[in-house]
Amino acid sequence: MRVQIFDTTLRDGSQGEGVNFSSDDKVKVAIALDKFGIDYIEGGWPGSNPKDIDFFRKIKNSKIEHAKITAFGSTRRAKNPPDKDPNLLALIESETPVTTIFGKSWDFHVTEALRIPLEKNLEMIEDTVAFLKSRGKEVIYDAEHFFDGYKANQSYALQTLIAAMKGGADIIVLADTNGGALPHEIGPIFKEVRKRIDLPLGIHAHNDSDLAVAVSIEAVNQGAVHVQGTINGYGERCGNANLCSIIPILKLKMGIDCIPDENLPRLTELSRYVSELANMSPPKNMPYVGESAFAHKGGIHVDAVMKNPQTYEHINPESVGNVRRVLVSDLSGKSNIYYKAEQFGIDLSSLEDHSKKTREILAKLKELEHSGYQFEGAEGSFEILLKKLINKFNDYFDLEGFRVITEKRGLKERAMSEATIKVIVDGEYEHTASEGVGPVNALDRALRKALTRFYPNLKDMKLIDYKVRVLETNKATEASVRVLIQSSDGSETWGTVGVSQNLMEASWLALVDSISYKLMKDEEKGISIRK
After folding, report:
1. CA–CA separation, 6 vs 228, rounded Å?
2. Residue 102: inside a domain
3. Residue 56 falls within a domain, yes or no?
4. Total-model pTM
């Protein structure tokens, strides 16, 4: 058995709140989906907006080797014959080999939304499909609101499918458009449909009940050979069935072919690539491909995973291109510390009285977390802390002092900040100043300016993210704050953290760690860091 994968990220997925693709982005996503082995790529609705029209024009000149590009549209308007319907003519002009058409399956929609007789809707479905088939198209018919329609009027819902079959549809897809179907309802409905419809069946599920993946998998159990969904589950309201979960479930759990075996380890990469182009941050807890999907925090869990990963992992992370992560926090045990130390190239077991030293590290970690530190997103700071505690870290500079002044002149003038700083490197003083749009920016620029004289490789480094979290909110402006910084040198990205009741001091601590981490890693690579 083989299941076809139909991706609608570029059409249904783009309707999700916050998702934003340009036509060029859509072409890039389509190429990535094709290389991954997706069977059908739904590019959009050419009759609805200029962006989709532009996509179909551009995709013709792109190298698509496996997937079939499909255009999406509705059945003809009630007053238009098929060959005069603007929507259908736009589908023909898109010149895609496949057309996906949706029609009404729910009598409620026919009478209330379309305001036409039920028989007229059946005519529209049949002659729309027949018209597209006469133009040489492969036609996938999406039965919109099918499960709601079936529950409301079983006989009529089935008649709409029969109309599509009479028109010559190649595949009929049952759509849970409102996302209200439950998995146990799928089997009986599919069995009734299969009595009337002698065509391949598919499923298109929305996630309003958080069951889109479960409904899709149950449909496959009931004989569906075509599954529609989106990368990362993007889509309107609560999203669509998430192909990043469906594909590994089919491949790894059910032994059903849907994409080439050699492509599955690229799933996580594909997920994150699409997120980047969609301008979305992927949820960390997304199954299979999320950053936290194979992250272990509890000490007992980590101890077991180190002995055998199957104790707390349902699949091998590498099979979907993900990685195992061990987090450090106040819930950590000694196993977490040993695991993280090994990642950093430190063999704690080789230290004299390593068990005692590990307990000291763990106690310090829990003390810092109690005061507000969090190392889950700041592994750069944790590596520095660890090496300091075992005397394997050398400070690269000392602070003599810094001062930050913020000035605003008049209501209409922009506030500006200036930072002055004194640092000492191997006994040499550097005293400098820099302006910035805010106090943290000014301090960051002044610090880099002072240190670049000694460490030219810092020119390659930049701050890419800065977050502030207020702790102890009941203390209002006296509360401690946690500053998390993400830095990059173009080849590596790392996180650092600082905590203080003073925002500038918390920022300073995170900035110092970010720079120290860069210098430490360059030294470890054998790169000369001193001028």
Report:
1. 5
2. yes
3. yes
4. 0.73
